[in-house]
Each structure stands twice: as structure tokens, then as C-alpha cells.
């Protein structure tokens, strides 16, 4: 509202309340988030006049939403309900002579709200001298009620909203950049594409402090039987699309996303806000989310930065998966090399892999050794287990392929396969930083013949000095060997096998591993058939 709405010589902003509050109050726009202004005064006429004076005002196409409170206590409650209040027009003398000043202290200290603009206005300046108040209280302006004409009220309001907007932008930038750094770190920990996609939706929701409704899809250039726009993750109200896998039921959204891919840029066309993300390996992604209001420029800028971090995180995921695939191929090749000379074991290593994974998961579910059951361990221990007998490549055929029982000298030679396997894999594992299939494989190769009571070989380790991976494979290896035919024995029954293993819990085997295997057998949850 401009100043010519009222007579130019009007000095008193307290106007006649001939118009009702409902008529005078501007309704918040359904398309633009309103600026919230809190009027705090114990005189109803002040509220009415303020509403009339500010009627129809908007700033940057956003209207005002006026909220009333008639005491300091009521105002504090409103601030708790509406943490996004931009401006407070605050009386000093209400339920007490310094109620307004006390509220200022509570806003800044208890609520830690440093961005809301506070304009102190008083009809009794003697009660709160301007110089003293400005120095001692964190307020942004001081006005006497007699000097606040309609024009000055308009000017004060717009100036305060502009200052609030700048403060919020700075704070959003600070918090947003912190969230981006934090979320990017989280995304780097995700290992699968769909898990990564779900993580992106969660982080955008946290970054903008909006609801969880969202879609992330990928563009498949060479379809290969897959939809051109393939949905990787959904959340909130879009979860019904998870089974469909495409956007055929959302033609308008599909049209906007096609534009995003065609123009290779983000489009903010509320309510169809869609981010464009490109990676170095030429994969393209689109992320749709649903903020309640059109995004502000600072939010769009933060999303641009976030998209760059998402792209870098995806490239990291891609390289991680490529490296992991290369490692898995190496492990399989090494296992094939060992089996090439020991063909009688059949699919032994594959069964060992699946059962090792199953026992590890069972132990984790039972909260055994939680500090050792890391994400890396759970992901790698099964694949690493297929290397447990890699050292047999160094054993002469006359011993390795002997159909009968080994004599003591032959047994001594055969036992060398454990330290040899550990040494071979350890040398390679040192070339890869951190936990890898090779480092776990080295632990397993060297330790799966150790006994829990310290009477095994090659190093006579005992208890938890034996790596957990080796303690698991020790049980799995014997379990599978007993159940299946070998050159030196016929297969045992499941009952005989479990009786034998159970009798050695605490001596040869870790009791927790035996317990996990027993549950899998009793509940018929073994991952593969165990007899050839």
C-alpha cells in the first residue's frame, strides 16, 4: 500500500477500525509463501490499525501474514509455533512494565533466534529510553507510536523484511553448505545405484527442509528392454510408482523430465521442480521433489552446488563398483586356479561362499561380535571365502590327489597350504589400501584350520586371536566336506555332520558360529543344497 491511500498530513497511525479484521487481513497466497509478521501489543486497537495500515502490502510478490499476540507470554508461544516469523512489532509495556524487553531476551537467548527482526514501538518512551534500550537489548529498530505514520510503518516493514531476507539467505547458505558437505560424505558410503538414488532423495529433503515426496530417475539411451526414463528411487506420495518403474501415469511430470534431459539443465517450474545431474561416464539423472512454495534463489543456488556434489559422488560410486568388479574377477580367477588342480571338490567353493554369507548375517542378526560385523566385512567375507584353499596350488599332486589317508609326513606337507595361501594373498592385499577381498582371503586361508582352543595349525592361535572370517569358514569348510563325497570318504548324513560339529563347539570351533549354523539347519534356511 502506498502513502496516498491515506491523507498526506495524517500523523496518527491508529485509525478507526470500521473495517473488520477479516476484511482488512490479506490472505496468504496459495502460490507464494507469505512473510509472517507478529504484532505484540495489549491494545486491540493497535492490532486493528496495524492490519489496516499494512493491508494489501507485498514484498517480492509475497504477501504478509499478520499474527497477533496480546502479551509477552502469548508472543513467545507464537514464536515457538512459527519459527519463520520475519518481523516482530513489539510493545514494551504489557502485562508488566518491561514485558517487551523480557521477550527480546527470551527470543535471542532461549530460542537462539538471531534472524527475526524486532521493532520496538512504545507509547511511553520514558519507560524504555531509546539509547539505553538500543545498547542493552538486541533489537533492530526503536519507534514511538506517535511517529509511526502509515508511510513510516510501510517503510519500516519493508526495510525489516529486506534485512530478514538477507539474514535468512546467509544462514541458509551456511547451513546448506554444511548439509551439502555432510550429505556428500554420506553418499560416498553408499554402494549400490538404487541405494545411492534413495540417499539423494533423503538429502534433498533435508537440505530444503521439505517433505519426503520425490522421484529420481535415470535416462537409458540404449534402452536394451528397459524404459527410457527408468525410476531408481521414489519416496512419499510417489511410492506407488515403485512397481510400475516408469512415468506413464504421470504424463506432465514425464514431459518436464524429458525437457530437463533435452535441455540438459535443471527446471524450476513449481510445482514441477526437477534437477538435472550428469556424470562423467555420461549417465544422466533427473530428480523431482515437491517443496510447498516456489524455491528462492538461494535455494536454487544451493541445489546447483548439491548437484555438482551428487555428480562427483556418483562418479565415485561408479569407480568403486568398477574396482570391486575387477577385484571379484581376480578372486574368481584365483579360486578357479586352485580348483583346476583339485577337481574332486566340485562346487565346494561356491557352497562355502553362500553359507559363509548366510552364517555371517545370522550372527549379525544375533548381535554377535557387532564391532567386527562392519559393512565391508559383510559385503566381502563370502566372496573372500572362496580363496580359503588357494595355497593348494603349491602342494604336489601325489599328496593333493591321493585317494587314501595321508601319512604323517604327507600331512605335514599338506598343512603348508594354509601359510602358503595366506602369504600369496597377503602380498597382493598390501597393494590395496584398507579391507579387500584379498586381505580377508589371506586371513581365511591362513586361519581356517586354527582351532578355537589353540590346538590347530599353522600358528596355534586361539579364541578371538583367530580372525572372525577364518572362524566362520572353519565351520563351513568342515560342514561341507563332511556332507559331500571326497576321494577318501563317503558323504555323511546331516544328522551325523551336525553331531560332529556340535561336539567340537568351544574346542575346534567358535560356539557362536556353530550356533548360527545350527539355527540355519534346524529352520531349513541353508542357502544351497549341501550334498552333491
From TrEMBL:
GO terms for biological process: phosphorelay signal transduction system. Residues 323-532 form the HD-GYP domain. InterPro entries: CheY-like_superfamily, Cyclic_di-GMP/3'3'-cGAMP_PDE, DUF3369, HD/PDEase_dom, HD_GYP_dom, Sig_transdc_resp-reg_receiver. Coiled coil: none annotated. The modification 4-aspartylphosphate is found at residue 91. PANTHER family: 3'3'-CGAMP-SPECIFIC PHOSPHODIESTERASE 2, CYCLIC DI-GMP PHOSPHODIESTERASE TM_0186-RELATED. Residues 1-32 are annotated as: Disordered. It comes from the Bacteria. Residues 7-22 have a biased composition (Acidic residues). Keywords: Phosphoprotein. This is Phosphodiesterase. Residues 36-160 form the Response regulatory domain. One of its GO terms (molecular function) is phosphoric diester hydrolase activity.
Amino acid at each position: 500500500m502506498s502513502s496516498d491511500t491515506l491523507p498526506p498530513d495524517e500523523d496518527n497511525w491508529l485509525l478507526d477500525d470500521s473495517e473488520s479484521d477479516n476484511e482488512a487481513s490479506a490472505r496468504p497466497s496459495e502460490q507464494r509463501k507469505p512473510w509472517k509478521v507478529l504484532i505484540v501489543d495489549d491494545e486491540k486497537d493497535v492490532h486493528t490499525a496495524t492490519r489496516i495500515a499494512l493491508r494489501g502490502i507485498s514484498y517480492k510478490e509475497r504477501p504478509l501474514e499478520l499474527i497477533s499476540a496480546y502479551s509477552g507470554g502469548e508472543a513467545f508461544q507464537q514464536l515457538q509455533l512459527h519459527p519463520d516469523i520475519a518481523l516482530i512489532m513489539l510493545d514494551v509495556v504489557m502485562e508488566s512494565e518491561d514485558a517487551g524487553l523480557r521477550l527480546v531476551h527470551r527470543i535471542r537467548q532461549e530460542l537462539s533466534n538471531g534472524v527475526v527482526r524486532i521493532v520496538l514501538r512504545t507509547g511511553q518512551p520514558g519507560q524504555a529510553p531509546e539509547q539505553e534500550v538500543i545498547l542493552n537489548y538486541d533489537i533492530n529498530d526503536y519507534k514511538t507510536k506517535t511517529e509511526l505514520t502509515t508511510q513510516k510503518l510501510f517503510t519500516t516493514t519493508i526495510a525489516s523484511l529486506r534485512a530478514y531476507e538477507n539474514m535468512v539467505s546467509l544462514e541458509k547458505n551456511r547451513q546448506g553448505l554444511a548439509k551439502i558437505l555432510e550429505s556428500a560424505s554420506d553418499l560416498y558410503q553408499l554402494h549400490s545405484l538404487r541405494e545411492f538414488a534413495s540417499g539423494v532423495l533423503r538429502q534433498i529433503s533435508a537440505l530444503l527442509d521439505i517433505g519426503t515426496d520425490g522421484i529420481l530417475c535415470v535416462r537409458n539411451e540404449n534402452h536394451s528392454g528397459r524404459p527410457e526414463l527408468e525410476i531408481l528411487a521414489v519416496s512419499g506420495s510417489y511410492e506407488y510408482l515403485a512397481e510400475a518403474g516408469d512415468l506413464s501415469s504421470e504424463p506432465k511430470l514425464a514431459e518436464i523430465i524429458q525437457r530437463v534431459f533435452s535441455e540438459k539443465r535443471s527446471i524450476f517450474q513449481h510445482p514441477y521442480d526437477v534437477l538435472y545431474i550428469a556424470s562423467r561416464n555420461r549417465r544422466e539423472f533427473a530428480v523431482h521433489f515437491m517443496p510447498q512454495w516456489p524455491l528462492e534463489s538461494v535455494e536454487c543456488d544451493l541445489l546447483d552446488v548439491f548437484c555438482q556434489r551428487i555428480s562427483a559422488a556418483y562418479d565415485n560410486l561408479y569407480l568403486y563398483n568398477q574396482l570391486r568388479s575387477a577385484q571379484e574377477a581376480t578372486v574368481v580367477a584365483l579360486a578357479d586356479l586352485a580348483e583346476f588342480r583339485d577337481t574332486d571338490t566340485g562346487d565346494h567353493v561356491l557352497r562355502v561362499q553362500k553359507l559363509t554369507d548366510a552364517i555371517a548375517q545370522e550372527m549379525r542378526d544375533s548381535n554377535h561380535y557387532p564391532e567386527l560385523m562392519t559393512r565391508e566385512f559383510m559385503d566381502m567375507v563370502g566372496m573372500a571365502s572362496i580363496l580359503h584353499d588357494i595355497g593348494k596350488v603349491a602342494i604336489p599332486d601325489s599328496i593333493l590327489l591321493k585317494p587314501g589317508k595321508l601319512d604323517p609326513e604327507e600331512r605335514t606337507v599338506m598343512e603348508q597350504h594354509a601359510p602358503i595361501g595366506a602369504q600369496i594373498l597377503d602380498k597382493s592385499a598390501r597393494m590395496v589400501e584398507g579391507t579387500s577381498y584379498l586381505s580377508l582371503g589371506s586371513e581365511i586361508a591362513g586361519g581356517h584350520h586354527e582351532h578355537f582352543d589353540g590346538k590347530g595349525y599353522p600358528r596355534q592361535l586361539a579364541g578371538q586371536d583367530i580372525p572372525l572370517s577364518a572362524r566362520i569358514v572353519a565351520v563351513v569348510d568342515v560342514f561341507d566336506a563332511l556332507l559331500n563325497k571326497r576321494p577318501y570318504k563317503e558323504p555323511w548324513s546331516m544328522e551325523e555332520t551336525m553331531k560332529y560339529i556340535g561336539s567340537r563347539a568351544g574346542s575346534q570351533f567358535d560356539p557362536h558360529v556353530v550356533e548360527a549354523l545350527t539355527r540355519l539347519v534346524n529352520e531349513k534356511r541353508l542357502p544351497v543344497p549341501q550334498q552333491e
